[in-house]
Write a structure and sequence with these properties.
Oligomer: heterodimer
Number of strands of chain B: 7
Largest sheet of chain A: 7 strands, antiparallel
Mean pLDDT of chain A: 94
Strand order of the largest sheet of chain A: 1-7-6-5-4-3-2
Distance between the termini of chain A: 28 Å
Helix content of chain B: 10-25%
Structural class of chain B: alpha+beta
Largest sheet of chain B: 4 strands, antiparallel
Number of helices of chain A: 2
Mean pLDDT of chain B: 94
Order of helices and strands of chain B: EEHEHHEEEE
Strand content of chain A: 35-45%
Low-confidence stretches of chain A: none
Shape of chain B: globular
Helix content of chain A: 10-25%
């Protein structure tokens, strides 16, 4: 698993989110849509794993930006770069879905391998 | 005939009623080490499982099936697509494609989707490790 640099460990502030559905799935979710109490949208984007945890990047998106991605007008990479306030949480979940670590970070401090390619356009299953 | 992970399956509609025994060639993503313990484990048996819910029965049922493809080309195309979306997916699903022959004695499979993917549920006592061999490195 990638080593995280310049990243602050914090309590996860978004534990209240409700899962809506998986947008990308292969042998488990890869991109899942969640909603907050006010109906705002968040994404859980899988980015890494080791023997202990799966690592997800959690971020808020505007409804219009999400629609553009689902309509294949923009890529997943573009959707990530348009995250609200450029605020990203990296969350390590174990097999029981317990959060072992949560880090707050910005786009520029995400490891390059944690970002999708420019060809990451939505493909509905 | 009971399924390999029968005790873990949701009590109804799993596998779905349209899943049938089959004789067909199949392709699956595997790790380079042919004896890697995760090569023929369904996602819900891999620790830690890549999941975000444990209560959605359709997810749970799929989570105890094995992903397969109908052709090498479809498997390779899907691997490239998965890598575009999630560059580290190789850590989860492996770096190679293996080919095998499924028979009616092995289990049941669902319909093949537009990208050549189908889900396979093994019968109890079946071990697919010796029925598959690596045919292509994809990373």
């Amino acid at each position: 698993m990638e080593t995280l640099n310049k990243i602050t460990q914090i309590p996860f502030p978004l534990a209240h989110l409700t899962r809506v559905r998986d947008l990308l799935y292969f042998d488990g979710p890869l991109l899942s849509l969640f909603q907050g109490n006010e109906g705002e949208y968040y994404l859980y984007y899988w980015c890494d794993a080791d023997e202990e945890v799966n690592r997800w990047i959690v971020f808020k998106v505007e409804s219009k930006a999400l629609d553009a991605y689902l309509l294949r007008q923009t890529s997943l990479l573009q959707l990530i770069t348009k995250a609200v306030k450029q605020q990203f949480y990296i969350v390590d979940l174990d097999d029981d879905l317990t959060i072992l670590h949560c880090y707050s970070t910005s786009l520029k401090d995400l490891p390059p391998s944690y970002l999708p390619s420019q060809q990451s356009f939505y493909k509905a299953d | 005939m009971p399924f390999k992970y029968q005790a873990d399956l949701p009590p109804t509609n799993c596998p779905p009623a349209n899943y049938q025994p089959t004789n067909r060639e199949a392709y699956r993503f595997v790790h380079e080490d042919v004896n890697h313990p995760n090569n023929f484990l369904p996602v819900f048996k891999i620790k830690p499982a890549r999941k975000l819910s444990t209560t959605d029965d359709s997810q749970v049922c799929k989570g105890y099936g094995l992903s397969m493809f109908d052709t090498l080309e479809n498997a390779s195309n899907r691997y490239n697509s998965l890598t575009a979306d999630n560059p580290n997916i190789w850590r989860s699903i492996g770096t190679h494609i293996a080919k095998g022959q499924l028979t009616e004695r092995c289990g049941v499979c669902g319909s093949v989707d537009s990208r050549g993917h189908f889900t396979f549920h093994e019968y109890e006592g079946i071990d697919l490790v010796n029925k598959f061999a690596i045919v292509l490195r994809v990373k």
